[in-house]
Structures are given as structure tokens and as C-alpha cells.
Specification:
The complex is a heterodimer. By secondary structure, chain A is an all-beta fold. Helix content of chain A is about 0%, strand content about 55%. In chain A, strands 2, 4, 5, 9, 10 and 11 form a six-stranded mixed beta sheet that branches.
Chain lengths: ~110, ~110
């Protein structure tokens, strides 16, 4: 089945700097890659997603890139703000339509 | 508010007991998913239903079972509870199997 690895597990950046989180997946048939943000004790919320027929997608300060050949995708957050501090999860939908999540990245934005 | 409703929000029970967690999907969504999130853990996929039928299964223990009813709400039954079952259980829903999923607020289960 699908396996998703996410790095780094923790990331600290200075306010205003960029943050990059990377994920790799194992199932070459995977075609949908969402990113979720989860604040402490709250539900994961979708922040951006990308499908396999595009290589990049942007939404204001957030962008996601996908490299299907290498089977990896990344989340880029520019001009980070303290409210960006949270746990970020990547996910991939592969065989059987199962949405499998990475282990998460704790992002801390220091002001 | 995602539109996915989960009850109860918090539950404390003893080892060996059985509990039922309930989920109402967003209006119009046919798929329901259950995920388990333990402390410092990621989101572990348990099971997915689509329009009343089991669609995909993850690492769900034999002590756990789930179903989706004709009105599309779903229940996750956890039996013979152990301390390690303490976790946040999320339900999520989507229109179909290949669409964006939206999470509920979760049910906090504490086993003592």
C-alpha cells in the first residue's frame, strides 16, 4: 500500500523567512496530494492540494510543487507569520483511494 | 466549521469497556473516513465507507468495528478498550472517494 514519508519532523524559522516541508510517496499511481494544517487540539484543515496533472499550485503565501518522476511533493510557505505555527501534514491518495498521511511537521515561527 | 459533526467530544471510560463514536458527514457527502491520532502521532487511517459500503480498510484493530447507516451517518465501535486506545478519533467526509476530505472536530477518548 501507499507509504508517505515527511521531513523534517520539526522546523523552526524566523518570522518573515520561508519554510519548506517535503514528502515522498511510494505508490506511483497516487494522483492527489493535499496538505493539512492542524493547530493544537483542533481538527486538520485543508490548506492546499494538488493533483497529478499539474506540477505547481499557489495560493497567496502557500505553494505546493509535485515531482511525479521522483515521487515527491513539497509545501512552501513564504513570509512566515506566528499564526503559521502548527503541525502540517502531507497526504497522498493511492491504491484503493486510501488517503495516507505523513507523520507531520511541527512548524514554529519565532517572532 | 467543516460541517462534519462528531459526538461525543470527550469520553472517559475504563479498560475493558466498549464505546461508540458517532459521525454525521457534511450534507451531500457519501464517503466517511475514520482516523486515529494518538499523542505525538500522525493520522492513522482506520476505515472508509462509501454510501453504506466498506470501501477501504487501514490498520484497524479487530476490537474496532464501524458501519455507515442508510442516512449516511457512521459509528465507530471500540471494544475491550486498552490504555493504548486513548486517542483523538477523527471522522472525515467527502463527496466521493476521490475528493477532498473534511474533518470533524474529533472525539477525545481517554481510557483509564
Amino acid at each position: 500500500g501507499e507509504n508517505v514519508e515527511q521531513h523534517p519532523s520539526t522546523l523552526s524559522v524566523q518570522e518573515g523567512d520561508s519554510a519548506v516541508i517535503k514528502c515522498t510517496y511510494s505508490d506511483s499511481a497516487s494522483n492527489y496530494f493535499p496538505w493539512y494544517k492542524q493547530e493544537l487540539g483542533k481538527r486538520p484543515q485543508l490548506i492546499i492540494d494538488i493533483r497529478s496533472n499539474v506540477g505547481e499550485k499557489k495560493d497567496q503565501r502557500i505553494a505546493v510543487t509535485l515531482n511525479k518522476t521522483a515521487k515527491h511533493f513539497s509545501l512552501h510557505i513564504t513570509e512566515t507569520q506566528p499564526e503559521d505555527s502548527a503541525v502540517y501534514f502531507c497526504a497522498a491518495r493511492g491504491y484503493g483511494n486510501k488517503l495516507v498521511f505523513g507523520a507531520g511537521t511541527i512548524l514554529r515561527v519565532k517572532s | 466549521d467543516s460541517g462534519v459533526t462528531q459526538t461525543p467530544k470527550h469520553l472517559i471510560t475504563a479498560t475493558g469497556q466498549r464505546v461508540t463514536l458517532r459521525c454525521s458527514p457534511r450534507s451531500g457527502d457519501l464517503s466517511v473516513y475514520w482516523y486515529q491520532q494518538s499523542l505525538d502521532q500522525g493520522l492513522q487511517f482506520l476505515i472508509q465507507y462509501y454510501n453504506g459500503e466498506e470501501r477501504a480498510k487501514g490498520n484497524i484493530l479487530e476490537r474496532f468495528s464501524a458501519q455507515q447507516f442508510p442516512d449516511l451517518h457512521s459509528e465507530l465501535n471500540l471494544s475491550s478498550l486498552e490504555l493504548g486506545d486513548s486517542a483523538l478519533y477523527f471522522c472525515a467526509s467527502s463527496v466521493g472517494s476521490g475528493n477532498t476530505i473534511y474533518f470533524g472536530e474529533g472525539s477525545w477518548l481517554t481510557v483509564v
